[in-house]
């Protein structure tokens, strides 16, 4: 087993307030790890530390073999990131987005052309290549954003509520792409508020008030809490 994320007492305080309180967990290569919590539980603060844009005030984390405390630039180069709020440039077309984001990660023109063709073919985007990304249906935009986050073949990809606003069938299709990436060995770290998505994860953690209160497979968590659904587990914990 190869560990791609390891948090050790990972902590972030703002003055007297501890938003993330001594998180300890490991995520293996190719694992799909769901990161759940109610609003304000501390998920965004934790994720910001894991992607190297915010320094822990105590503890540390290794991500893709680099320390977030001292090697944040290397962490950033070796991960992918996609959020619901920002992922692609609406006023560029598919090719331009791939050239822009792939270029940031240092891919050359030939590789970018190959990646572009692969993405168009894999996602069936042939009818949209002349359009600006803003004209794509939301579900396709999300799939494209995920593919763009994987252009530089990162060891880990962080997905921050990647499927907000689409129906369960479209979410399910998005998850097929996640499974394919995980099968190729990419580690997936995903936050979500949708319990159907949480069910698709290999393991999930549930955060309450800055701490991880439960962490296991969806099946084991339901058993542990004597619950029929993950939603019940979640409500039990968050209460
Ligand atoms: N820069 C900051 N200064 C002070 N407090 C902060 C700061 N950033 C976050 N917090 C506080 O830390 C707590 C956790 O916030 P965070 O955004 O990480 O939660 P979250 O679990 O991501 O919630 P949501 O699902 O709503 O995004 C909140 O109480 C928030 O007000």
From TrEMBL:
List the Gene Ontology MF annotations in alphabetical order.
ATP binding
Gene3D superfamilies per record: P-loop containing nucleotide triphosphate hydrolases
The keyword ATP-binding appears for this protein:
yes
Q: Which CDD domains match?
A: ABC_subfamily_A
Write the record's keywords in alphabetical order, separated by commas: ATP-binding, Nucleotide-binding
Domain ABC transporter: start-end pairs:
5-234
Q: Which InterPro entries match?
A: AAA+_ATPase, ABC_transporter-like_ATP-bd, P-loop_NTPase
Q: What is this protein called?
A: ABC transporter ATP-binding protein
